Amino acid sequence: xxxxxxxxxxxxxxxxxxxxxxxxxxxxxxxxxxxxxxxxxxxxxxxxxxxxxxxxxxxxxxxxxxxxxxxxxxxxxxxxxxxxxxxxxxxxxxxxxxxxxxxxxxxxxxxxxxxxxxxxxxxxxxxxxxxxxxxxxxxxxxxxxxxxxxxxxxxx
Length: 156
Prior knowledge:
Number of helices: 5
Radius of gyration: 20 Å
Structural class: alpha+beta
Largest sheet: 3 strands, antiparallel
Shape: flat
């Protein structure tokens, strides 16, 4: 059961990141797992879930094809959970829709912004070929920096 759940998590993570990672040269997938490692439900999803996730990675055969798959685990008690979230925020993001980005300390994800133009009918090469990329605005220019924000809800 644990192996099935881990395989499902791995499959979900890979399918969600496939569009962005497939085109990346580094082929890196990072999976975060926050579960009960030491409490009442540790037998159901504790240390065994991390082992099962690692086994699913090995069974997938992707590491032999040049993929680097990191599994980051932590106990969901208040202290370890905060550590896992902090570690996940340190890692860069690579979203299939928005591209490479990062997570700021307040939890906001920043990423490049894209400007598209609708193509003329003569420019379209097939179905769904309606837009062309005109400009990419880097993440640091697309979002207001935290120290310059005027939002009264933002803790500075």
